[in-house]
Design a protein that fits this description.
It contains 10 helices and 11 strands. It is α/β, with parallel strands linked by helices. Strands 5, 6, 7, 8 and 9 form a 5-stranded antiparallel sheet that branches. It has a 4-stranded parallel sheet with strand order 2-1-3-4. It has a two-stranded antiparallel ribbon with strand order 10-11. The protein is globular and about 60 Å long. The chain starts with 9 loop residues before the first strand and ends with a strand. It comes from Tolypocladium ophioglossoides (strain CBS 100239). This is BRCT domain-containing protein.
Length: about 350
C-alpha cells in the first residue's frame, strides 16, 4: 500500500503537464496516496503544479495563485514526480516557483540533465531520449540488488537494473545494468545485452532473466522470497508497489513470513493498528469503505493512457496474480532452481 503522503492536500495543474502526468494519471496516483487532484481551481487547492514555461508566461492560474499568499504552494511538477516515486513528500521550498532562485535551479537541473544524458549515451543510454519505464501503479523499473558477503570480500556490491522507455512514440524499450564493485566505487561497469532498443516483451524478458540469475528468484517471486536466499546471491528489498507477482501481495507477505519463521501478522503492525483505531475512533464500516476505495483505485484502469494500454496487452501474457488455493508446501523448479511456495489454504 503506497504511503499517505498527500493526505489533506488538494492538487491542481496550471495547464497540461509533460510525459505521463495526464489528468487521469494525476487523479489516480494522488488518490492512492490519500490526496485529491482536481481539475477545478478553487479555494480548496493547496498545491498548484506547473512547468517553467507556464510560470514565466503567467498563465491565468499562475497569475491567480500569486495573489493567494505564500501559504499557497506553486511548485514545479518535479515535486509531484519525485514525491510519488520515492513515496516521501519533498520539501515544497526546493521546488517553489515563487522563488527566483528556484527557477534558476530548475534551469540548471535541466541543463545538467541534458549534458549528463549526452555523456551517458556514449557508453550506456542517452537519458535525453529515454526515461525509466513506469507502470500504471507508478512503479519505476529501476531497482538495486546488493551483496554483502565479507567472507569472500564481496561487500557493498550493487547492480542497478533499469528498463528504459523511449520518449518518442511508438515506444521502444532497452534493458541495462550498472555494476559497482564496492561501496563508494566511482567507476561503474555497464551491461547492455541488446545493441539497440526494441519491443517491450524482449527487453522485459532480459530484465527478469538477469534478476533471476543474480538473485536466484523469479521476478514474480521477489516479495515471496525476500531475504530467503543465501548471502552469496544478490538481495532485493521490494517496495510496497509494483505488478506481476506470483500471488496477491498480502498473501506473498504472509508466505514470506512463514518461510522466515516470523509471526504473522507482524506484532508491531497489530499494535499500531489497535492504537490508531483507539485514537481515531474508527469503526469497522469506515475501515471497510476505505479499503474498498483503495482497491477500486487500483482496479480502475479504464482511462489509462495509450502507452499504458499498449504495454498492458503485453503484460497480460504474464498472467494475473494467483489467488491462494491448495495445500501448503514448497516446490522446486528444475529450470530456474528457484524455491516458490505452493498456496496455503
Amino acid at each position: 500500500m503506497p504511503r499517505q503522503i498527500y493526505r489533506n492536500r488538494v492538487l491542481a495543474a496550471a495547464g497540461p503537464l509533460p510525459g505521463e502526468l495526464t489528468v487521469d494519471n494525476l487523479k489516480r496516483w494522488t488518490k492512492l496516496r490519500r490526496g485529491e487532484f482536481t481539475e477545478d481551481f478553487d479555494e480548496t487547492v493547496t498545491h498548484l503544479l506547473c512547468t517553467k514555461e507556464q510560470f514565466n508566461k503567467r498563465v491565468p492560474r499562475v497569475k491567480d495563485a500569486l495573489t493567494r499568499g505564500k501559504r499557497f504552494h506553486i511548485v514545479h511538477y518535479d515535486w509531484f514526480e519525485f514525491s510519488t516515486v520515492y513515496e516521501k513528500r519533498q520539501p515544497e521550498r526546493d521546488y517553489s516557483m515563487r522563488n527566483y532562485l528556484a527557477k534558476q535551479n530548475a534551469a540548471k537541473r535541466e541543463q545538467a540533465q541534458i549534458e549528463r544524458g549526452k555523456k551517458e549515451g556514449e557508453k550506456f543510454v542517452n537519458t535525453n531520449l529515454y526515461h525509466v519505464y513506469i507502470d500504471r501503479d507508478f512503479f519505476p523499473y529501476q531497482i538495486d540488488i546488493t551483496r554483502d558477503e565479507a567472507a569472500t570480500g564481496e561487500s557493498g556490491q550493487r547492480y542497478t537494473l533499469s528498463l528504459w522507455e523511449s520518449n518518442a512514440k511508438p515506444h521502444l524499450y532497452w534493458f541495462t545494468a550498472k555494476f559497482l564493485k564496492r561501496k563508494g566505487d566511482s567507476q561503474p561497469s555497464y551491461y547492455r545485452p541488446s545493441r539497440c532498443s526494441g519491443k517491450w516483451r524482449r527487453e522485459m524478458d532480459l530484465f527478469m532473466d538477469f534478476f533471476r540469475i543474480k538473485t536466484g528468484l523469479e521476478w514474480q517471486n521477489r516479495v515471496l522470497g525476500e531475504k530467503t536466499m543465501p548471502a552469496s546471491l544478490f538481495q532485493y528489498s521490494p517496495p510496497p508497489v509494483g505488478r506481476r507477482l506470483q500471488f496477491e501481495y498480502e498473501y506473498c507477505l504472509e508466505m514470506n513470513a512463514r518461510l522466515r519463521g516470523l509471526p504473522w501478522p507482524p506484532a508491531e503492525a497489530s499494535v499500531v493498528t489497535e492504537m490508531n483505531d483507539e485514537t481515531n475512533g474508527a469503526d469497522p464500516a469506515t475501515a471497510d469503505d476505505d479499503a474498498e476505495s483503495v482497491t477500486s483505485s487500483y482496479g480502475d484502469h479504464g482511462d489509462a493512457d495509450t502507452r499504458s494500454s499498449l504495454v498492458d496487452e503485453k503484460e497480460a501474457e504474464l498472467g494475473a496474480p494467483l489467488a491462494p488455493s491448495g495445500e501448503a508446501g514448497l516446490i522446486s523448479s528444475p529450470r530456474t532452481k528457484t524455491w516458490i511456495l505452493r498456496a496455503l489454504p
